[in-house]
Design goal:
Blueprint: E1 9-12, E2 15-18, E3 36-42, E4 45-50, H1 57-77, E5 81-82, H2 90-103, E6 111-112, H3 116-129
Antiparallel strand pairs: 1-2, 3-4, 5-6
């Protein structure tokens, strides 16, 4: 869907000139009747959620608050792991943990990762378990 935008310039003769002096720095214009949810998570830091309605605001607020925990849960759920349970020793598990931390996405071919469903489950669980 294409949203109509405010005209900033108009052609006058051979030049384009500004239509108005609306350069206040607040370019975040909203349509009449729309809502925006703002969360200040730190000094000077803001997160915005657009297209929020009074009905969806509570869930959107919960999602903003739990976003960091959701991202951590998704990151943890999406880590590669062996596809078959192999009895690793304590030393091998430590080496694997160090390898994961240092190498990121490079893993042996017999390892696997979680599906999108598993990751979304982890995210939903993070929201439901979040306590500020």
């Amino acid at each position: 869907m294409i949203k109509p935008t405010e005209t900033r310039y108009q052609k006058v003769g051979r030049k384009y000139v500004p239509v108005s002096a609306h350069w206040s720095g607040d370019h975040d214009q909203m349509a009449v009747g729309t809502f925006r949810l703002t969360y200040a998570y730190g000094d000077g830091g803001h997160r915005y959620e657009y297209e929020v309605t009074p009905t969806t605001a509570p869930m959107a607020a919960a999602m903003i608050l739990a976003r960091v925990r959701m991202e951590d849960a998704i990151r943890e759920a999406s880590k590669m792991r062996p596809s078959a349970p192999i009895p690793y020793t304590k030393k091998q598990r430590a080496a694997i943990a160090q390898f994961r931390a240092e190498m990121g996405g490079m893993f042996p071919s017999w390892w696997t990762e979680n599906s999108a469903y598993d990751i979304s489950e982890a995210a939903m669980r993070a929201v439901l378990e979040y306590r500020p």
